[in-house]
Amino acid sequence: MNILAETLGYIAIAAGFYAVSKKEMSGFRFWHLISSFFYVIYGILLESGPLVISGAIFCVIHVHHLRKLKKVKNNNFDNRNNKCTS
């Protein structure tokens, strides 16, 4: 196995471990997205369909949920700024 593939695999593992250390869901999802992206590249280099497919699915799931979290955060921010103070 080549050194590039090995390095990308270790980066994917490190990002995954870092993801689980995050307390906020957005931090977890962001770092797991990074990990999944590296697993996709790693899977391509190894020519491993299951790694590529699972990594790509995880990427889609995390991007979807990060967008939802951002939308909720923006809505909460807008609601706080539109409150009427008397």
Notes on the structure:
The structure is a single chain. With 86 residues, the protein is mainly alpha-helical. It has one domain (3-78). Helices cover 85% and strands 0% of the residues. The protein contains three helices and no strands. It has helices at 3-20, 25-46, 49-81. The chain starts with a helix and ends in a 5-residue tail after the last helix. The relative contact order is 0.12. The mean pLDDT is 90.
Concise description?
This protein has helices spanning 3-20, 25-46, 49-81. It has 86 residues and is mostly helical.
C-alpha termini separation:
68 Å
Helix content: over 70%
Class derived from helix and strand content: mainly alpha
Q: Outline the low-pLDDT stretches.
A: none
Number of individual domains: 1
What is the H/E string? HHH
Outline the biggest β-sheet.
none
Number of strands: 0
Summed over residues and divided by their number, the pLDDT gives a mean of: 90
The amount of beta strand, in percent, is: under 5%
Q: Gyration radius, to the nearest Å?
A: 17 Å
Quickly count the helices.
3
Name the shape in a single word: elongated
Architecture blueprint of SSEs:
Blueprint: H1 3-20, H2 25-46, H3 49-81
Helix pairs in contact: 1-2, 2-3
Notable traits:
mainly alpha; 3 helices
